[in-house]
Amino acid sequence: MKKYFTLIILSLILIISCEKDDICLENTTPNLVLKFYDFENDTLVKSMLIDSIRAIDNVLIGDYTKKTLDSILIPLDLNEFKTVYQISSGGTSDTIYFSYGRNDVFVSRSCGYKTIFENLAIDSTTNNWIKSYNINNTIIDNDTTAHINIYH
Length: 152
Prior knowledge:
It is built from 1 helix and 10 strands. By secondary structure, it is mostly beta strands. It has one domain. A hairpin with a 3-residue loop joins strand 7 and strand 8.
């Protein structure tokens, strides 16, 4: 009987000491959302054929090669305060220089931290196929709405 009692106590201690599995269900660091509009009619969303998108270090973002889209999501550099992208369309390329501040926010034990980008600005851009742009939101805390409108 004493043997069963010890076994039950040990089993209870084992069950009580188990931790539940932590699975991150929340959004992590958001991407920058660029939405493309017609330059002649700035309310008309205009899809474009994207030849390629490269970060300054020439890393090709493979998800956007030879695709026709009306918006793109691109990551900003978590270790810097600037990110430079070269977006090619129709055989021409434009380079966009983004600057921003970073704010790391604790999400949960399972998710860790996410970075909120603040004070987003475009320092400069070349004007080959990009005619103009409009920054809709200088705080990037989600990737569900367009942060910048690009007119082409």
